[in-house]
Specification:
Blueprint lengths: L1 H14 L2 E4 L4 E9 L9 H18 L19 E7 L7 E8 L5 E11 L26 H6 L5 H7 L4 H5 L11 E5 L2 E14 L2 E15 L4 E4 L7 H8 L1 H4 L1 E5 L7 H4 L3 E6 L11 E4 L11 E2 L1 E6 L2 E4 L2 H4 L9 E3 L6 E3 L1 H15 L7 H7 L4 E3 L9 E5 L5 E3 L6 E6 L8 E6 L1 E3 L12 E3 L7 E6 L4 E6 L2 H12 L1
Parallel strand pairs: 4-9, 5-8, 16-24, 17-23
Antiparallel strand pairs: 1-2, 2-3, 2-11, 3-4, 3-7, 5-9, 6-7, 7-8, 10-11, 10-25, 12-26, 13-16, 14-15, 14-19, 18-22, 19-20, 21-22, 25-26
InterPro entries: Aspartic_peptidase_AS, Pepsin-like_plant, PEPTIDASE_A1, Peptidase_aspartic_dom_sf, Plant_Aspart_Prot_A1, TAXi_C, TAXi_N
Family: Belongs to the peptidase A1 family.
Protein name: Probable aspartyl protease At4g16563
Length: about 475
Amino acid sequence: MASSARKLELLWFILIFIWVPSSSSQTLVMPLTHSISKEQFNSTHNLLKSTSTRSAVRFHHQRQRHRQHQVSLPLSPGSDYTLSFTLGSGPAQAHPITLYMDTGSDLVWFPCAPFECILCEGKPSPGPSRPPNITRAHAVSCQSPACSAAHSSTSSSDLCAMARCPLDAIETSDCSSSACPPFYYAYGDGSLIANLYRHTLSMSSLVLKNFTFGCAHTTLGEPTGVAGFGRGLLSFPAQLATFSPQLGNRFSYCLVSHSFNGDRIRRPSPLILGRRDGGDEHGEFVYTSLLRNPKHPYFYSVGLAGISVGKRDIPAPEILRKVDATGSGGVVVDSGTTFTMLPASLYNSVVAEFDRRVGRIHKRASEVEGKTGLGPCYYLDTVAQVPAVTLRFAGNDSSVVLPRRNYFYEFLYGEDGATTKRRVGCMMLMNGGDDSELSGGPGATLGNYQQQGFEVIYDLEKQRVGFARRQCALLWDSLNREKN
């Protein structure tokens, strides 16, 4: 029975990939699953509170100064999307892997046997319970550029010395048999120590040999690994590009609009690798240019000129329009943060205008604001009338109108155990803190909740990010029909 269950598990992981070749394009489509789809829902306000807290912690961590000791990684389940693939080749060696998909990280890593997760009690893992066993035969050399990238560009000579390669071998660059030293990463509420390995990564008919990844035997507070989709030598797209530039130089995802609805949140969201025929035939995408961040080169940063609330245009502070030489500024487009984080000056201006319009009709729900970490919130005794919210990007003078459900969430609120509940609504943008404290990192983050209902495309060849309104569940269905 165990053997049959194992075969079925492997078969399921293999079949979830859709390989869509054509004469003019190559596309690989993978399903993204929201990490709370397998969780039990408690009260809505408690879910919102934990999610808003994680968004704030991740945003403040992204501005840490010492990247050689810290990297942006997802926090605990509830705000992130997962994807799955198969490690190894052949039925005997293949092992299913489930990871968080994260555009704010540039490394692929996951737990390996033997594995110890410290302070992980009560933290569910979306992937298989048995970590893969990686042999030393697949270890990356200390001389490898990948080893240097994992250690934040530390020289190969220093790394080989750490690996105890003899001096004469270091001088003659003859340390290929010495493994890359373990590296340490810390993040919002945990950390890990990992070794660098190469192995075969399989996706349906696509096989990536010598794929480089981090193998963590010990983590603190993080039982699940990460598929880093950020900019960087070790990221998933960068490694895929060495196999197929058509696949690796362009990817997009379309997050199903769920509003924390259990039925909607269980629908797969398509992750599309490569250029899809007809994906932008009619100029549907609104593009904005990517900005280079010298301190955080793995981020997808864009410039924000302002936010419109109704017909009023609110200019963004200068820190959001560009990234300076110290790595300060810009807006990170981030799949691993739930709610958009704004500097206090812009957030307060948006709230003031929003409240001026909504507060005339609906009473503020201050108690709900404290319980959810969001605001402003209102009691909705009548149909809510809220103004439109538009993001105005600095690059290409482009604008994106957010669907109402992407910035205003309505739900029934009542204290735990209460028999009666009252309808409320909250604005889903968050205060990222005082502008003066935002040096050394991003000025804002565009979270995945605000990206719902859009196909968000990362065009690495043309260095731009694009947005197009989509019905993402229908897009997933149509891509499935194309493969049949």
